[in-house]
Amino acid sequence: MEDSQYDEFGNYIGPELDSSSSSEDEQQDVEEEQTDRMQQRQASASPSDAEDDENAEEESSDKAQNLMAMMRRVDIAKQSPQTQQNQIVLHEDKVYYPSAEQVFGEDVEILVQEEDAQALDEPIIAPIKTRKFTVGDADDLPQTTYAKEFLVDLLGHPSFVRNLAVVGHLHHGKTTLVDLLVAATHEWSEWDVATPIGTPVVKMAKPNQKAFGFTDTLQLERQRGVSLKTTAMSMVVQDSREKSWAFNIADTPGHADFFDEVEAGLRLADGVSLAVDAIEGVMSGTRRAIASALRENLRITLVITKIDRLILELRLPPADAYHKLRLTVEEVNQAIHSHHTDHPRISPERGNVCFASASYGFCFTLHAFARQYTRRWQNSVDPRELAKRLWGDVYYSAERNAFVRKRVDANAPRSFVHFVLEPLYKMFAHITGEDAPKLRPLLESLGVRLRAKDYELNARMLLRRAFGQFFGPPAGLVDMCVQQLPSPVVNAEATAARLAADTKGPLAQAITACEATGPLVIAVAKQIAAADGQSFYILGRILSGAVTDGMNVRVLGESFADLDADADDEDAVPATVSGVWLSCARYRISVSGLAAGSWVMLSGVDLSIAKTATIVDANNGVVKAAVRSLQMPKAVVRVAVEPAVPSELPRMLHGLRGISKTYPASQTRVEESGEHVILGTGELYLDCILHDLRRVYAEIEIRVADPVVSFRECVSETSSVRVFADSPNRKNRITLIAEPLDAPIVEDIEQGAIDPQWSSRQTAQYFESTHGWDILAARSIWAFGPGSLGTNILSDDTLPADTDKARLRSVRDAIRQGFQWASREGPLCDEPMRATRFRILDATLADSVVHRGAGQIVPAARRVCYAGFLTAEPRLMEPVNVVEIQAPADCVSAVYTVLARRRGHVTQDAPKAGSLMYNISALIPTIDASGFETDLRVYTQGRAFVQHYFDRWQPVPGNPLDKDAVLTPLEPATGSSLARDFMLKTRRRKGLGDDVSVEKFIDDPVLRDIIRSFE
Questions:
Q1: Of 633, 635, 612, 616, which Cα lies nearest the Cα of 625?
Q2: Which of 836, 843, 851, 725 is closest to 791 using CA atoms?
Q3: What angle do CA 629, 634, 635 make, to 5 degrees?
Q4: 363-372, pLDDT tens digit by residue?
Q5: Cβ pair 631, 613 in contact under 8 A
Q6: What is the pTM of this model?
Q7: Residue 249: how many CB atoms within 10 A of its CB?
Q8: DSSP secondary structure letters along 582-633
Q9: Least enclosed by CB within 10 Å: which of 116, 184, 283, 992?
C-alpha cells in the first residue's frame, strides 16, 4: 500500500478502482433490453387500442418494477456477506428490529398496550397471588378409623351424640387434649414425628409449625403459638366397650382477650370439659370459664392435664403429688359452688374427673385404671367398685388384702398413691433411665411390645410409644363424657330455657322436641372466614328440624323481636343455602343435609348476618322468634384507623365488615369527627384484628392511632333541683330529676337476669321481689337504655292529678327516643351513660297532636335528660382490668413497682401451693394497661407471666366539671384533676368544645339562677 494514495487521516485519495461487481453491469443491460422491447410494442400497436394500451402499460410497468425488485433481492441473497454489508438497502426493505413473532414464537399471544391503559403501579401481567391463610386443604379428607358416611349417619341419632366444649386457662392443654382424640381416630403424620413437650412450645424443626394443634387451623395461630379461634371438630370415638359415639368438640382459646370465642363455643355445647394444669391449678381463665358455663346451665367435667410435669419438672414424691391433685379438685369445687349452683360435686370417684398427659399420649379415669388391674388380675372384681376405693382417705392393707378407712401403719400410702401414682412414677423412671436390654422385658411384662427401632428414640418419644400402648386409646375420656354429659335430646329442655325468651312459645316447644321432622331452628354461634378470606361460612347448631342443600331459609338478626305473618321485618332476610358441611377443623365433609342435635357449617346465608343470628324455614311460619343473643365481654379498648392512601377507603370499609363478622366482640363505628374506630377487648385482640385487616380482608396499608379506652358517664347524687325543658315550639314542657341506680340492679341487668322481652308486669314483679321496689315504682319503668337492655332506666313518676296520663302515653315513644339518644351520648364527652335513673315528675303537653309530635318531644326529652344529669353531680367512669400475675418469689417486688407506676394496686399476694411461683392479683386501669405486659417482663427479665381483662367500671378521681383543676401541658394529670383531664382530651379528640355547662340545656333564666346557687 502506497502512502501517496492516502491522506493524513487515512482516507483514500488515489485513482478510481475498477468495479468488481460485474453483475450490476449485466443487470443494467437486461433492463435496457426490456425497455427497448416495450417501446417497439408501443410503436406497432393500433390507435383503437389506445385506452387498453394505457392500462396494459400501467400493469406492465408495475410488473416490471416488481420483477426488478425480486431480482435485486435474489442478487443480494446470492452475494457474499461482505458484499451484502456494503450493499445499499432501500427504505422499504430495511428491518430495524425483529418482529414479536420472531422473538416470542408464533404460539404466543401478543398484546400491545397504550401508555395510559394501566396505572404505573399496576403490572401489565399481574403475578399470581396465593391467598391462603389456613393450614391444610379443606377438601382433602384424611384417612380415619371410621367411614365418613358412618359419622354422618350417627349424627342422625341424637342419643348417640355428645356436644362438648373444651375450655380452660391459657396453655392448660386444651388443644393437645383434642389432638389426643384426633391421633386415635385419624392418620396424622405430625403427631408421630413431633417430640412431646410438656410446657408450651412454639416451633418444631420446621419454622412456623407447632408440634401439635390439629385444631389450630390459622397460620396466624401457628406463628403466635396460641389458639385464637374456636374450632369445631366432629369425629367418631369408641368407649371402653368399643361402642361408637359421635363427638362434636369445640376447642376454645384460653387467652383472656379471646373470651368471646369461648362464649360462642358454649352456645354450641351441651356440656363442658374443663382443662386445668396439674401445677398451675385454677387460674383467672378457669374461673371465667366456670362462671360462663354455669350461667349457660351446662354440666362440667374436669380434666387435670400435664400430670407428667409433677414427675419430670417438680419431681414431687407420689404422696405430695396426690395432695397437689386433690387441692386442684377442691379449687374447682370452690369455684363452682361460689356461684350458688346445684351443680354436682367434682370428684374422681364420681367419674367426672379425668387425669391426662396428652403430650405423652395417655389419659385415664379411676375406672379405666381399675379396669387395667382387673384385666391383669383375671378375677371377678367389679372395676366400678374398685374405682370408688382409689381416691380419698382410703388405704390398702396388704396383710388383710382389703381396703380400710383408717391407716394401720404410719407409712401406709393411700390407695391412689399405691395403685395409680407409684406405677406411673416407676414407668417414667425405668423408661427414662434404663437401656433397651433391661427395658424390653419390663415393658413386655406389662403388655407393651415395641419395635427394636422404637428403643433407639429419645426418651420423650419412647415415653409416648410406651404409654400409648399401655393405656391404649383415650377410652376413659370418652366414657366420662358419655356418662356425665347429656345428649342433645336429654338436654333439649334446658337448652330451650336458656335460648328461648318465651319458654312456652313455639320456639321453646320446637327446641324441646329436638326432632328432625320439626320446624327448622339453627342458632348461629359464629362466622368462619374461608381459606382466601373473601367469603364466609356460618357455624351453628341445629336445635330443631333439618337443613338441606338448596333450602330456602329466613335469617333472623340479633335485633329481631317478632315476625309478623303479614309483614316482612327488615331484620328477617330470606336466603338460600348453597352448601352444607360438617366442620372437622382442617377439613370439612360435604353432606346433603343434617338434622337436629348436630353442628353444621353453611354457606350462602351470611350476607345479612352481622355477628350471630337465627335461621328458620322460609316456608314454615311456626317459629316467629329468635334465640337470645350471645353475652359478649365488653370491648373497651379502641383504636382509630385510616388508609395510608385515601383512595383505598372503600377497600378498608370492606375489610372492616370482614373484621366485624369474624371477631364476635369487636365493634366498628364512625365518630362524628369522621374517624373510623375499632373497639376490642385487649392489645392482642386488636393486634390480630389489625393483622387481618392489613393482610387478609383489605390488603392495604393503614395508619393506626394510639390506643384509647371507652368511658362511661354517671351521677353520684340526686339532682339538686327539678329541671325542665321546653320543646322548640314552646308548647310542651317535661320535668324530671336524675339519681344513681343501685349497684345490684346494674349487675343484674348486665348479667342478663332481666329479659328485654318481658312485659311490664313481669319486669315489675322481678323488681318488687328481688330488689324491694314499690309496686307502683316498678310498674312505672318505661325503658332501659342505651339499647334494649342498658344500665339506665327511664320511669314515669307523674301523678294523675298533675298530669294528663292519656296525653303523656301518647308521646311515650318520643320520650323514649330522646332518652335513648341522651343515654347513648352523654353530655360530658359523648360517652354512654351508666347506672342512672331518670324520673319524669311532670309533663305539660300541647292540646293539638300536631304541636306535640316527635319532632318537638324528642329534642325536649334529650335536653331535659342532659339537664337533670348535670345537676346530679356527674362523674366520669373508666374501665378497670383485673390482673393475675405468676412470678417467682424474688420478682414480687418488681411487680409491685410496675403496678404502682400505672395506678394499679395489689389485692392478693400468695404463694401457689405445690410450686415455686407466687400468684399476685391486682387491679389496674385499662387506660394504663397498654404496654403493661411488656413493661413487666422487662422488669422481671421475662420470668413473670400476666393475664388481664376488663372487670368493672370505676369512677375517675375528681370532678370533670371542676374548672379550677390544675392541668399542666405535656405532663400527666394526677389526683383530683384526672377526671377533668380525661374529659377535655376526649372532647378534643372528638372535635367537641371544652365548655360543658348545664345552662346550654335550660332556657328559663330563673332556673339558671337557682342552679348557679347550688354550685
A1: 616
A2: 836
A3: 110
A4: 999 999 888 8
A5: no
A6: 0.84
A7: 28
A8: EEETTEEEE-SEEETT-EEEEES--TT-SS-EEEEETT--S---PPPPP-PP
A9: 116
